[in-house]
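User: Quick sanity check before I run a bigger batch. Here is a single chain. Can you write out its predicted 3D structure?
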Amino acid sequence: MKTLTTTADLAEFCTAARACDYVTVDTEFLRERTYYAKLCLVQLAMPGQGDEGAVLVDPLAGDVSLDPLYELFRDKSVVKVFHAARQDLEIFQVEAGVIPQPLFDTQVAAMVCGFGEQVGYETLVRKVARASLDKSSRVTDWSRRPLTDAQKTYALADVTHLRVIYEHLSAELARKGREKWVAEELRVLTDPATYYTLPEDAWKRVKTRTNSGRFLAIVRELARFREEYARAIAASA
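Assistant: Done. Predicted structure follows.
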């Protein structure tokens, strides 16, 4: 399991990846105690078998810049493959103002192929890749270092099996002529506006049990204040 902790190593991997048709991507992050998600790990894999061509990128290492990765994300000759990409994309949009394109989301593609809405990665690994996942590191603090071998194995599996899933689903979409269906679904995910909430609209995320005009007016103002205050704190951190 190779972990990249320098910009030079990341640049070397991304140069090789730009010669491929696709690269699979996943992230591990923390969000419970911060306004914006804290990126803790990036998993990447080029086409191959097993751990071949798969790496972990440690953004918490002091000597690594993710700029080579963002350049790869901007390269439209390489498909960037995620599963349930929304939270991952939000991180990259906030961090660098970049959304990987072209994008392929296996959760969206699986829905179009008849696997049901919001199908989980584990289900696709079992049904498509004919493999199983080690769940022992599912609940973990990804900001702590050093990472254990179990954590690294768990994280890497999120992109190695994804290669088989992507190749299967992309072939199914082509066979059924449904590529345009997926493209329609991905328009929202690739729109930067998806990842920005106007403070005045923050109240829409609040669940209430009343339609009282006065109560809702108070909720709107409190939600707006909270949004603006949280962003100010995050910006100054």
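Residues 199-236 form one domain.

User: Great, the batch can go ahead then.
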